[in-house]
Amino acid sequence: MAANRINIGQSDLKVFPLVLGGNTFGWTSDDKTSDAVLDKYVEAGGNFVDTADVYSAWVPGHSGGESEIVLGRWLATHKNRGDMVIATKVSEHPQYQGLSAKNIAAAADESLLRLGTDYIDLYYAHFDHEDTPLEETVEAFDKLVKSGKVRAIGISNYSTDRIEEWFKIARENGYTLPVALEPQYNLVSRGNYEKNLAPVAKREQLSVFPYFALAAGFLTGKYRSAADAEGKARQGMVADYLTPDGFALIDALDKVAKAHNVAIATVSLAWLRHRPQVAAPIVSARIPEQLPDLLASSMLMLTDAEVEALNKASEPFAK
Question: Residue 315 gets which letter from DSSP?
Answer without folding.
Answer: G
